[in-house]
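Hi support team,

I'm filing this because I wasn't sure whether my run with zinc ion finished correctly. The job status page said complete, but I'd like someone to confirm that the output block is well-formed before I use it downstream. Pasting the exact inputs I used:
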Amino acid sequence: MFAFLPGEFLVKIKILGSAAGGGFPQWNCACRNCSRLRAGKLQAKPRSQTQIAFSPDDRVWFLVGASPDLRAQILSVPELVPHADAPGLSPIGGIFLPSADVDAVMGLLHLREFQTFFVFATPAVQCVLKTENRIFKVLERGDLPLQWQVLSNNGRLGCHLSASPGESPTFVCNTISLGGLFPDYVSEEFLRAAEPDDATLGFLFEQDGKKLFIATSLSGENAEWQKLAVSADVTLIDGTFWSNDELQRTRRTNKTAREIGHLPLSGSDGLLAQFPANATGRKILIHINNTNPILDEDSPEHRAVLEAGFEIAYDGLNISL
Ligand SMILES: [Zn+2]
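And here is everything the job wrote out:
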């Protein structure tokens, strides 16, 4: 199905979206950031909902998550539209799902036009999509329906782009459980049966000795992520909230960041403090909520994360590994 070009390639990574659920600005939010952005009074970039794409060979692309903004995000990138020599075939070969959150799976519905591709997900996330939500059956209408692939919540999966047997994998996907919760739309019956460690995954993709670590939703319950962050050349990590009570202060909900599965950036036990000091790769914050003051490029919080050596992802950021 895919032509594999021999030799070493730079893995190309594209940040198609960098905001948390709702995007920036969010349609129903008039927080300080959203209202000032709409009024043109904020030094900040608008952002669509988090979407990562990477290519191991500059031909086939893989998505991490499937954002609600996926259709527009695909159309914005020439590499992701079908090539003239294969008009019925998207260059998107597969999708790695970190969770069953609406923000991570809703985009699958944009990919429903009788297209085949692989979907990599834990057994529990597959169960959510197959039995808790019949709408995703729409993906299975093609003559070649989508192909489910099981991800362990603590495993190593070799991914081959070549059809020839015996070759080493093009890239390897290592997975770890990041703790966290299943989405609140699932049934009680599902929750009783589901393996909690299947809820939210982090990915360490390896190719030609280079490593990309992706943890867009980090609860902090499991400290294993720190080892992967140390080993990675590039880390894309949860920058959802600056403070634990951010949503309460902006009156969006009365839950804390930690209660909804995100380690806040600030504080003595926040992500900036917990990020391993001996990590030498690029560290890039992604999945940034519209309430987060780091979005304001004139803010002390924005300066603080840059001074701590982090980059802040934006839509259109390209990275080579
Ligand atoms: Zn807002």
